[in-house]
From TrEMBL:
Keyword vocabulary terms for this entry: Cell membrane, Membrane, Protein transport, Transmembrane, Transmembrane helix, Transport
Record-annotated membrane-spanning stretches: 12-29, 120-138, 158-175
Pfam families listed in its UniProt record: MotA_ExbB
Any single GO BP term: protein import
Entry GO terms, CC: plasma membrane
Membrane topology, record value: Multi-pass membrane protein
InterPro entries according to UniProt: ExbB/TolQ_transport, MotA_ExbB_proton_chnl
Family named by the database record: Belongs to the exbB/tolQ family.
Ranges of residues in domain MotA/TolQ/ExbB proton channel: 73-191
Protein name (database record): Biopolymer transport protein, putative
First-listed, main subcellular location of the protein, grouped into a coarse class: membrane
Amino acid sequence: MNLLDLARAAGPLLWVLLLLSIYVVYLTVMRVLALNRLGQDAGTLIERARAVTAESGAGAALAEVDRAAHPSPAAGVLRAGLGRADRGSEAAQAAMNAAVLDGDARAYAGLSALGTAAQIAPLLGLLGTVIGMVRSFLVFSSTSAPTPAQLATGISEALINTAGGLIVAIIAYVARNALRAKADRVMAQAERVREELPAWLSGRPAAPVAARPAPMPEVALTFEPVKV
């Protein structure tokens, strides 16, 4: 039995699963391409903007960021904060918050659709399973002594749809988690800029990460018997 025979034996729901699998693969490829573009490392641009801000001010740093035309969300947060620096720290912070939200929308786009596909695919497979089993029981109701070939039609439809739904769900689930991890890395750099830029504008050094306190030395306790 070839693939075409399997598709015919599985009934119409398998074609729905095939269309869903094509959509999942297409969306995954498009999101990988988009995240590769958004995930370009902006570390050099961030350090350059920091130096220019300290030397020449926010206006010169903004011009430097605009010339770079970097597509990452971190660069967008830089543009937003430096562009509103002349209006005060609160305006700059509000602009950066809006830029982070815009970056989130671009980085995490499509992930909810993949999650929905991962949830729907097993349900479609289960529906195909139920339909196949119903057909098998209908054979019993119409024939007192059904042949194995008659029963195999409904059973094969049930099993093929179950397998198809699980395969599509696994692909969608794995793709969603991998893309979310990549989007998290992209947005971590944007969050770093939002936290550090106010310190650049005020001329203060960024707050260092607090070191963990050293553990207290262990003191050995000895007890001597009391003489009466």
